[in-house]
Specification:
Keywords: Hydrolase, Lipid degradation, Lipid metabolism. One of its GO terms (molecular function) is calcium-dependent phospholipid binding. InterPro entries: Acyl_Trfase/lysoPLipase (IPR016035), LysoPLipase_cat_dom (IPR002642). This is PA24E phospholipase. One of its GO terms (biological process) is glycerophospholipid catabolic process. By secondary structure, the protein is an alpha+beta fold. The protein has a single domain, classed as 3-Layer(aba) Sandwich (Cytosolic phospholipase A2 catalytic domain). The chain is 33% helix and 16% strand. It contains 13 helices and 17 strands. Strands 1, 2, 3, 4, 5, 6, 11, 12, 13, 14 and 15 form an 11-stranded mixed sheet that branches. The protein has a two-stranded antiparallel sheet with strand order 7-8. A two-stranded antiparallel sheet has the order 9-10. A hairpin with a 2-residue loop joins strand 16 and strand 17. Helix 1 runs antiparallel to helix 3. The longest helix has 19 residues. It is globular and about 65 Å long. The protein starts with a strand and ends with a helix.
């Protein structure tokens, strides 16, 4: 009768990174962090998870230490990321990665930038290392969500959900998984043909990033300066024709410049890994398979020779390019999730990811509550909502936390009003175009960081009664279903 509880987070760059820390702090203060079985993430929220799971007992320790550490990195100047020394380091690491047998892309460069911006130096942490934080069941299972796509198709036409845990990596649709430490290696018909070293976590962080997270204006400025400083010019040969114009061929001198150029021009950032399904053939009745049909949602489902098992590489992209959610792993029937705390950090409409998720699952025949909110409600969002489907026991109860600043303006803690001198501390802009937490912001002031942590922690604590209501409702439903 004990409900299975999960935390589902969206992307949102450094806003997601910071806000998730605040939400988890709020859950810890309520004594509810220990009841969570799964935490799923995409994009920026995975940066938080990969940081926390380097500590074997993070959920039982005071979260103020990792929060202080992230604060130090979020408030430091990021110009050193583009120093000559840093560029040489990136080039060296990319060369090493290529020698190891990996396909190099702009995503790898982005991962190294993240490492430099959010760490103290080279971090040798790997995904499988996080098993240590799960060996005694002491922390929730982290699940990183990403999409496999085809370069000739848009994400609306072809995408496949891929989940990463410290134990395994695999496709929900095909039910095919491999060990986390073997991801990236070459397989054929399920046999390991060539073992590649497991990727460092920074390259996995690079996989889960949407191109909108880049501050393209600043990147273009830096690119222009670097190109000015590092170009090779070829003098034009004298021409005997007066009408011909003198021209110069300008090419980047350093190989890393081509990668930066692709970052600025790519529509969707894609990372390529060897496809571990290569060589397999789908069963001739695959379209009748219940698990396959559950996730069958692309234009190529009726053409087995065009699905993933025939591809040389997987092309991985951020889920935000389709729907900014990490729900799918929680919808696997064997996980039996009863309550989902939906923590939203995405830009634009706070309700859109949840609404799109509901429509998607309804279309797929996957039990999920219907989301019905008026336009008036969407414009004046509260801190927390509960959505449930009492007629479908298999559907999880969703406790939805949009990123809003409502009663926090007046209260510094639940039930504790602010004094006139403290009112300014409650002014946290998380919704306008002037917000310091926009997607392309990679540096916060100390005050802005602290305010976002306090707001997101408060929103959880102030709605303890709704979380407990959802848990009690799930318990009652399990009792009735058992009878």
């Amino acid at each position: 009768q004990v409900p299975v509880v999960a935390v589902m987070t969206t992307g949102g760059g450094t806003r997601a990174l910071t806000s998730l820390l605040g939400n988890l702090l709020g859950l810890q203060k309520l004594g509810l962090l220990d009841v969570i079985s799964f935490i799923t993430g995409s994009s920026g929220s995975t940066w938080t998870l990969s940081h926390l799971y380097q500590s074997a007992d993070w959920s039982h320790e005071d979260l103020s230490r990792p929060i202080s550490e992230v604060r130090r990195h979020m408030t430091k100047c990021k110009l050193s990321c583009f120093s000559l020394e840093s560029l040489q380091y990136y080039a060296k690491e990319l060369k090493l990665r290529k020698q190891e047998g990996y396909q190099i892309s702009s995503v790898d460069f982005w991962g190294l930038l993240l490492e430099k911006a959010l760490d103290d130096g080279k971090n040798n942490h790997k995904l499988s290392d996080e098993q240590e934080a799960l060996s005694q069941g002491q922390n929730p299972l982290p699940i990183y969500m990403i999409l496999n796509m085809k370069e000739d198709y848009s994400l609306s036409e072809f995408k496949e959900w891929v989940e990463f845990t410290p134990y395994e990596v695999g496709f929900l649709k095909y039910g095919a998984f491999i060990r986390a430490e073997d991801f990236g290696s070459e397989f054929f018909m399920g046999r390991l043909m060539k073992k590649l070293p497991e990727s460092r976590i920074c390259f996995m962080k690079g996989d889960v990033v949407y191109c909108k997270n880049l501050n393209c204006i600043n990147m273009f400025f830096i690119f222009s300066v670097m190109q000015t400083l590092h170009i090779a010019t070829k003098e034009p040969s004298p021409s005997g024709r007066r009408h011909e114009l003198e021209t110069y061929l300008v090419t980047p001198e350093c190989g890393i410049m081509g990668i930066i150029r692709r970052i600025l021009t790519e529509r969707v950032m894609v990372s390529k890994f060897y496809n571990f399904l290569k060589g397999f053939q789908l069963h001739n009745e695959y379209l009748q398979n219940k698990n396959f049909c559950r996730w069958k949602d692309t234009v190529l489902e009726h053409f087995p020779n065009q699905l993933t098992e025939t591809a040389e590489f997987m092309c991985l992209a951020d889920t935000a390019g389709y729907i900014d959610i990490s729900y799918p792993p929680l919808m696997r029937p064997e996980r039996k999730v009863d309550v989902v705390l939906h923590l939203n950090y995405s830009s634009g409409s706070q309700t859109l990811p949840l609404e799109e998720a509901s429509k998607y699952f309804q279309k797929q025949g996957i039990p999920f509550p219907k989301i019905q909110m008026s336009e008036r409600e969407k414009k004046n969002l509260k801190e927390c909502y509960i959505f449930e489907d009492t007629e479908t026991p298999e559907a999880p109860t969703v406790v939805f936390f949009p990123l809003v600043n409502d009663s926090f303006r007046k209260y510094k803690e639940p039930g504790v009003e602010r004094s006139p001198a403290e009112m300014a501390q409650g002014n946290v802009d998380v919704s306008t175009i002037f917000s310091p937490y926009c997607l392309n912001s990679f540096t916060y002031t100390g005050e802005a960081f602290d305010k976002l942590i306090e707001l997101t922690s408060y929103n959880i604590q102030n709605n303890q009664h709704l979380i407990l209501q959802a848990l009690n409702s799930a318990i009652q439903q399990k009792r009735q279903h058992k009878k």
